[in-house]
Predict the 3D structure of the following.
Amino acid sequence: LTGSLAHSIKARIPWLFITLIGEFIAVTVTNRFDKSFTALPIIAAFMPLLAGLGGNIGTQSITLMVRGMSTGQISLSSGWHQIMRETITGLSIGAIFGVLVTLVTWGWQHNLELGLIVGIAMSLNMTIATMIGTCTPLILKKLHIDPAVASGPVIATTIDVIGLAIYLTLVTWYLIGVSTGG
């Protein structure tokens, strides 16, 4: 916080560059599902919802971990306890938001299947985001990389890629089932 402007820029750019590469991976993942977008265009509308909530819950986990590590409340050896705790927290919050998103989507789009797809994707995304958000600072610390600088870009990119892959895979499975009468 007290270093030079050049030092601040130098510390951040590598992680933001990694984010840029990761987001291009997310674009590539999204592009591979172009037929799903053609068949069911409304699916694009839910992507910011999934990315936003996944990213935010992951960031909350990162913040708790980095703060706990900086105050000495969490160490590398006690990290497993925190990983389990945050995973259960993420699963619980993910289930709550998954049900809520299912109901809102069903009411809005009058399509229960779409609501279930978005709700399941939300639940999985939030659960995985808390796990990654909890593990990332511990892994970075073990690698002697400052978790306060690197965790955010890592979680943003990872959750975008994983969240989109989960969601679009579920949509594609649904569309395959509809087209085959299954």
Notes: The chain has one domain: 5-179.
